[in-house]
Design a protein that fits this description.
Elements: H1 4-11, H2 17-28, H3 30-33, H4 38-45, H5 49-58, H6 64-78, H7 94-115, H8 118-130, E1 134-138, H9 141-155, E2 160-161, H10 166-174, E3 181-185, H11 194-204, E4 207-213, H12 218-222, E5 225-229, H13 238-261, H14 263-285
Parallel strand pairs: 1-2, 1-3, 3-4, 4-5
Domain HTH rpiR-type: 2-78
Protein name: RpiR family transcriptional regulator
Domain SIS: 124-264
């Protein structure tokens, strides 16, 4: 049972002021907190027992005991990490960057795996497998992941789109129907362009999937199926790189699971795609 510290970090900007003292104390002293009672944590953090209980509810855990179990799992997992999440340092050597970024991405993927329930991914796989049409939505770096989804699923015969223009996204969402899937990708879960698109898709009868960071956000609240990523935000591009890596990791899992459900069709579709591309380029080269 892991993900407590990650959940707190991702939820911190949205936690109520009355609960932040406890949240900040937990993040600063996680090893101590797993040994503290609610009363002791309230006293040490300058908060109240009620605030600690509300904090647990705010971040989506059933109670203080569950939060401590999650934190204990985090501490055990992090003990082997050579590099903590942090800002990119000035004048880092290439050799150090190679090792540090590999470790950072490995941590992000590992933590993303821990915070996602297999049942939620299974639900997404089932809906996409049966979908008449799949719309992928994203903005900025997340749009690259939407394009990746369109490219992957298109090659196995799925009808899908990945528009970047807000008007096209809305028009496509309005024409979805029951049995279709609207898949929105946003690290923050607060991308203004995507919120009306998912609302429109939901009103049209489509199943909505949100891939966002862990913690409360508006896009997650709108979606039927919620999937989560864990990636540390930083000033120098680490958010765009780490979040994109874990978003694509989850997209790969879903794609592979969907492809495996109808293996014979998948192989046939991939072979047709390969032959079409090969023949086209061979023709151009002659």
């Amino acid at each position: 049972m892991k993900g407590g510290l990650t959940l707190l970090r991702e939820s911190l900007p949205l936690i109520k002021p009355s609960e932040k003292n406890a949240a900040n104390y937990i993040l600063a002293h996680p090893a101590e907190v797993v040994k503290l009672s609610v009363q002791e944590l309230a006293g040490k953090s300058g908060s109240s027992e009620a605030a600690v209980i509300r904090l647990c509810k705010s971040i989506g855990v059933t109670g203080y005991r569950e939060l401590k179990l999650k934190i204990a799992g985090d501490l055990q997992n992090e003990s082997g990490n050579k590099y903590a999440f942090g800002e990119i340092k000035p004048n880092d050597t290439v050799a150090h960057l190679m090792e540090a970024i590999a470790e950072k991405h490995t941590q992000s993927i590992s933590q993303t795996m821990q915070v996602n329930e297999a049942v939620a991914i299974e639900q997404a796989v089932s809906m996409i497998s049966r979908a008449r049409k799949i719309d992928f939505y994203g903005v900025g770096a997340s749009y690259l992941v939407a394009q990746d989804g369109e490219q992957k699923f298109g090659r196995i015969g799925k009808w899908c789109t990945a528009y970047s223009d807000a008007h096209q996204q809305l028009a496509s969402a309005a024409n979805l129907t029951y049995g279709d899937v609207a898949f929105a990708i946003s690290y923050s879960g607060e991308t203004e362009q995507l919120l009306p698109v998912i609302k429109q898709a939901k009103e049209a009868g489509a199943t909505t999937i949100a891939l966002t960071k862990l913690g409360p956000n508006r896009l997650q609240e709108l979606a039927d199926i919620q999937l989560f990523t864990v990636a540390k935000e930083a000033r120098i591009r680490s958010a765009a790189t780490s979040s994109r890596i874990v978003q694509m990791y989850l997209m790969d899992i879903i794609y592979t699971a969907v492809a495996g459900r109808d293996y014979e069709h998948t192989i046939d579709a991939l072979e047709k795609s390969r032959q079409a591309i090969q023949q086209a380029f061979q023709t151009e080269q002659k």
